[in-house]
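Bench log, entry 3. Co-assembly request; chain sequences pasted below exactly as received.
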Amino acid sequence: MNRLVGAPLAAVGALALLAGCSAGGGGSTQEDGVTTLTFSMWAGSTPETEALETLVALVEEEYPEIELQLETAPFNDYWTRLAAQASGGTEACILGVQSPRAASIEELLLPLDDDMLADAGIDLGEFEDAIVEGTQVDGTQLAVPYDLGPWIMYYNAEMFADAGVDEPTTDWTVADFEEAAAALSGDGKYGFAINPSLDNATVWALTLGGSQGVAADGTLQMTDPAMVESVEYRQGLVADGSSPQLSATSDTYNALNTFISGDAAMVVDGPWQIAYVAEQVPFEFGVAVVPAGPNGTSTAVAGSGYGVSASCEYPEEALQAISVLTGPEAQTALAEQGRAFPSRTAEQPAYFQGAFEIAEETLTAASASGEPLRSTVNWTQVNTLFAQYSVSALNGDMTAEDFLGTVQSQTEAGAGQ
Amino acid sequence: MTSSTTAGASTTSSAPRRAPSLKRREARTAYAFLAPSGIGFFAFTLGPIVASVVIAFFAWPVFGERTFVGFQNFVTIFTSDPMFWRTVGNTLLFVLLYVPLNFVLALGLALWISPRIRGRGLYRLLFFLPAVTPIVANALVWRLLVQPNGVFADIASWFGVEQFNPLGTEAGAMAAVVVMSLWQGFGYNMLVFSAGLDSIPDHLYEAASLDGASAPRRFWHVTLPMLSPSLFFAAVMTLITSFQVFAQPYVLTGGGPGVATTTMVMYLYQRGFQLFDLGTASAVATVLFAIIALITAVQFLGQRKWVHYE
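Structure output for the full assembly:
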């Protein structure tokens, strides 16, 4: 998932990328019995790159005849670079695949059938169902997942204590949430920081109305009643003063940073941020499930995995490498570092230690009740437009129907070409 | 070469023959000197421009088949694309706000730090600093200034403004992008104007004063005509760069709220690299190129009327 800690860095990187693309990609070779495979993955910081290098070492230890050539880019640049490389036919053999973006790069990936997976020793039955499904497009497996992330609620335990509000429990409801948010607001502080992104809207649509902005068959249904409810509900939070007004920004960390700076008591984000939050906050924080709506709690689940590019000349070797990259040992290593919540159910307990102990109950409950975040082929565009227009909508300058209808019609017009 | 050594009889014919060979040698030397920048120009400027125009006539997805579609991409953006005209409008709005304000600010400050001011070198440096700081850093600082709990919001609250959130409204976000761009961009033109002012000979002002010209008349009839080459240069460059505005909205607002600050270049970036549709992106780029070329041509035609070279 998107672990990059500096959206600004991503912006710098993107500009540098526009100025002149760096070389890379392609170049998988076989020589003297050693297969060299290119492996492209996002990494936003040195520790992330180091974690990937650890995984590469695991692969080369397990399969001495495979050598991996790792190339990394920050999350947003990764996709830009992938597009540039794919247009030149030089994409890497092993590609990082984020579940909501799988559909948009479907043509680039080799469909993984059961035999191929079995030959590489991968049993998808050992993985959490939601993310196995999340890395499929139309029932075709496109990647082997390595992590999993149900969206959860982060809360500032000190602000709750100071205001005399009970901390969230696993069975708290939307009404409890509203009450807490109102009680925690005032004096320039807010109960809840809203992230204008589509995935956050989906989280609320799932818990309030039980469906999301993409139908099961992959068609965009922005104006679904659950989505309208999700937007209207959060418009109410802004209007009541429980949430701050939104600003147009390219910073996807805006809401999270409002929480981290202590200006908002709650925020919804993924477990991939726990390490960042734990490192940044000067206060005691906790995590809880998203509050339950009328039909119980539900949240969106996303995650990431590794796929084989369709142009890869050595798909068997690539899958062997992936079996190690997503294997128990690799997942345990990442979990112990707090880098990823394992997609393998047996390895998940390795994650719940130190700063992550607090997340055990929440993540277990959220993973069980979560639904894969569905996506469309033009997912990036839908997300961009959604995030941009939701600023106006949540501030109350646009009705929920107008807003969602605009996103729907503009992306349809864009996709129809 | 050999003919000149053997034939003493035909001096008249050997002289014109020698001249082209010298000319050719000089030309060869000239080409050798031109080669580094020439090769760079063809490989990195002209080549990509031509390639981009060619791509505009194709359905060119990043993945999959590329097919020639003629003018289809242009027809699409002109007729059925809901975004294209919005982004043209946004770009024009930016240009119309930014260019005149930039000129007023740059010229005003250039006049103010005229030779009479002590420490003008320092002022020049200070005003030029924003132009050389990275735009991404500028945008991050501006974001801190204009966000709802930022410095400007604090100042606004002294005047009783409760909800100061320019980036939350469409007009406010465009204003923020323009103001930030002004702050970033006026230093360059100021330096150009300042240098232009320095080169105006004092005797012209003295003569005008002796003839009884007041300060405004001296400005109007001496300063402006003498500065016109600098003004022309600045106008051409500023218009071109302002039509190409990308980094400011990209970093500060992400193109929002809605699509209020999505400019043409931002839009072609999104189409190309988020929607993986290089054909349409190139069509947008080609239209932008045509607009800029047209406006620049008009400026060059119009300069005869008002630019005075001496």
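The two ends of chain B are 45 Å apart (CA to CA). Residues 1-15 of chain B have pLDDT under 50 and may be disordered.
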